[in-house]
Amino acid sequence: MSADAAKPSRREQILAAAAEKFARFGFHGVGIDDIGAAVGISGPALYRHFRSKDAMLAELLTGISDRLLLGGQDRVAAAADPHDALDRLVRWHVEFALSNPALITVQMRDLDSLTEADRHKVRELQRSYVEVWVDVLCQIRSDLARPTARAAAHAVFGLINSTPYSAHLDAETMSHLLHRMTLGAIDHATIPA
Fold it and tell me: H-type helices in 46-170, by residue range?
């Protein structure tokens, strides 16, 4: 693979810069000129790549949701059994969160800044990703009702997605810690009688 093939496109560079700016200052705290300056072009030149700042946010949040869903589905499909599927899902989500802290922050904070149509699309993708986890959890834990498995999946997402605020450990140590904590939390997912 040549160095040019590995270089991100201008569009990808703009999205990465937008994610960093939105994560640091919030969607409404960033102007088009700020994003342009981060990639070395004028703000108005961004309109050759995106119709608006809103379109950038929509692509970021749709993209993260789509990547998580497809990655989760791929890992479950490659798994030998439900326990292996869960392990792969946990590792996938932890890896994604540790590698994309700006996207995680933007997703958690700026989802409500999307248009209603874009927010609906993101929510549909997110629901589908949750159901990948729910299916696996219910295969492993026959004692879990689907609503409990769904609540458990959301709870572990909260645990894993807290990583942008946990810069106390190196990535490998944090990955191992989150993996163990997530599996432990799932193992203890029951509703008291």
Answer: 53-78, 82-99, 101-110, 116-140, 146-160
Residues in contact with 119: Cβ distance below 8 Å, sequence separation at least 6, in sequence order:
111, 112
Percentages (nearest 5) of helix, strand, coil residues in the chain:
80, 0, 20
Which of helix, strand or coil describes residue 177? helix
- Kindly report the CA angle at 130 between 148 and 65, in degrees rounded to 5? 155
Q: Indicate the helix (H) or strand (E) that contains 174.
A: helix 171-187
Low-confidence ranges of the chain (pLDDT < 70): 1-6, 164-167, 190-193
Beta carbons of 132 and 88 less than 8 angstroms apart: no
Output the pTM of the full model: 0.88
* In contact, 102 and 23? CB cutoff 8 Å: yes
Cα–Cα distance for residue pair 193/190, rounded to 1 Å? 9
